[in-house]
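Comment thread on ticket #2218

A.B. wrote:
> Attaching the input chain for the structure job we discussed in standup.
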Amino acid sequence: MRTPVPFDLDRVVRSHGWYDLPPWDWDARRGVLARPLLLSGGRVVRAEVAAASGGLALRVVANGRPNGAEVAEARSKMRACLSLDEDLEPFRALVEELASRPEAPALRRALTRGAGRLLRSPTVFEDAVKTLCTTNCSWGLTRAMVGNLVAALGRAGPGGSRTFPSAEEMAGLPERFYRERMRAGYRAPFLRALARGAASGALDIESWRSPSIATEELADRIRSLPGFGPYATEHLLRLLGRHRGLALDSFSRRKIARLRGRRRQPPDRALARWFAPWGEWAGLAMWLEVTADWHGDAPTWP
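C.D. wrote:
> Ran it. Output below, let me know if you need it in another format.
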């Protein structure tokens, strides 16, 4: 697969925590990213990508030889997951235009090293479910909820992996499943409503990656979903390539305050003012600043 230049698979995979949630499988030692994919024909394959000369190598594993159409579909899904078609040139130009700002050097370094693209799921539905599972909880609980869901409902794929369940597979389950089996707590009715809306067609959630939808209209659609407050709305927007919102959570608030040398955590309105000059890219500018140490010369693990 061709990739933009510069591009770094590790930096895109570890752009945020999705790589640590099933059904993603990131082998950092070998530099191989893999996951099972449910294809449109109903077949489950395992897609693996690794850095190669001139781009990325794709390997598609199936029970039986995959045909050309299946390989092409897997390639398209993995391109979407790695945000390969997102155009970062306007942001790169803005970094040069605002070079005098204190965060600009860190942003330039991040972009030069191939950061800036965010790991996404093959479907907007999966991204929305996982976003709900990050609200008002620890990362350990997020991992437990997503793991329970995949273990209970995912379809078996090659190598023993399981897919992320579809909206249809989740829609018919009672709220009790989400509370007792998934351990989703207060999120249970929100997850059930999301699955029912997507499965019935009342919620055309997969169309939300279309650039033809205005950002404010898209934000309104997300905010109308049960359980999606300011953080969840802006987080999902970020995964849809809309970066104006900061998607502030406890981690980012603490980190940006420490990086800016503030002894007390500034209010959200102050953080919004700090990043306002970045306009449509404010959220990405903030995120690259607070995660710069993840991708430095001696990287840390998010």
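A.B. wrote:
> Thanks. Noting for the ticket: The first helix runs from residue 9 to 13.
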